[in-house]
Write a structure and sequence with these properties.
By secondary structure, this protein is mainly alpha-helical. It is 62% helix and 0% strand. Helix 13 (251-264) runs antiparallel to helix 14 (269-277).
Length: 347
């Protein structure tokens, strides 16, 4: 049995996962939409935030990827668990308050349908739509599920369906959640074992994506540019690849590139970020996931101080992580309390 993680260490990893996601997102914002050749020319990429990302935002600004993760977190804190209806209410709130920065079209459309009274299970984009905007919120079930992969896959799929009906979107969300939970455990997983566990979670919703994750370790020995060029094409519809050399905004390549970078440089936050950021395209989504995984594995110390302090609303992010941690601790203690109570009643 794995050694239980001391509460202060686990809380630090919660904080690093939440902050790491926001930091990766903010590092990727100025590179969003760039071709890979242009992103590769950016000096010291991953070292610090752009002074003025896209020419009009604050230094350290993150995007809707982090904001949707925060919506999922506030939802879980409010009701004490992952809940689709509560998540939908948070999406509606973000829409009314106009706080989402650069949201993907399926998120906008789902929010509009929710505002107009659509049920939360029916508001999502139709089958076939599997963009990467669905992934960041999966951090929350990853943090809260403990070591319960069945619950994790269910909860990740429930959060996904609020904006996406496509099973591959739910599968990718489940994969992210399981990867976070495994990283949080602190165990030293081989790439093969790690990807096998992540594939099981994905396979609850989509077997083809599970196979893609399971085979990911095969490319870890390749040269990085060759591996990234392969991964960015996996399962991507031809129209999304046409005329672009950056990372497509599709769940399969974004998930695979994030996992690849986190496995390639599992102990070095900046190096892992560089791998992702030089892809360009939808690098902010992949960098966010990669940051969450490396952070969850090591705690706050793995994230350079200038990045921890420089991301916008850093104190709020830490507060959200602490409140999620409190929810997780209550959930972990509840079964023990119920067992003890049942024992007293039997006596």
């Amino acid at each position: 049995m794995p050694t239980p993680i001391p509460e202060p260490v686990l809380q630090d990893r919660f904080r690093a996962a939440v902050l790491g996601l926001a930091v990766g997102d903010a590092l990727g914002l100025p590179l969003k939409g760039l071709p890979a050749s242009a992103a590769a020319q950016v000096p010291e990429v991953g070292e610090d935030f752009s002074p003025r990302p896209l020419g009009r935002y604050k230094k350290g600004q993150f995007t809707a990827h982090t904001q949707l993760m925060l919506a999922a977190a506030e939802s879980a804190v409010a009701v004490g668990r992952v809940d689709g209806r509560s998540m939908a209410s948070q999406v509606v709130w973000t829409w009314h308050e106009k706080v989402l920065l650069l949201p993907a079209a399926p998120v906008v459309q789902a929010a509009e349908r929710l505002v107009n009274g659509a049920p939360w299970m029916a508001a999502g984009a139709p089958l076939g739509v599997a963009d990467a905007s669905v992934l960041s919120r999966a951090l929350v079930p990853g943090l809260l599920s403990g070591d319960d992969p069945v619950r994790l896959a269910h909860d990740a799929g429930m959060l996904a369906v609020v904006t996406h009906k496509e099973p591959r979107a739910a599968a990718a969300a489940a994969a992210v959640a399981r990867a976070v939970a495994l990283s949080l455990s602190g165990r030293r997983w081989s790439p093969e074992a790690f990807c096998s566990e992540v594939a099981v979670a994905a396979g609850v919703h989509d077997g083809a994506l599970a196979d893609e994750v399971r085979h990911l370790p095969r490319v870890l020995g390749w040269e990085v540019p060759r591996a990234l060029e392969l991964l960015r094409r996996v399962a991507v519809p031809a129209p999304l690849l046409k005329g672009t050399e950056g990372l497509p905004g599709h769940v399969s390549p974004v998930l695979l590139v994030a996992l690849y970078a986190a496995l390639k440089a599992p102990d070095d936050f900046v190096t892992a970020q560089r791998v992702v950021l030089r892809c360009g395209g939808d690098a902010d989504a992949a960098a966010a996931l990669c940051g969450a995984l490396v952070g969850a594995r090591h705690g706050l110390e793995v994230i350079p101080t200038r990045l921890r302090r420089g991301v916008v609303f850093s104190e709020h992010l830490l507060d959200v992580a602490d409140r999620l941690f409190a929810v997780a601790q209550r959930a972990r203690r509840a079964p023990a309390f119920a067992t003890a109570r049942a024992g007293v009643q039997r006596r």
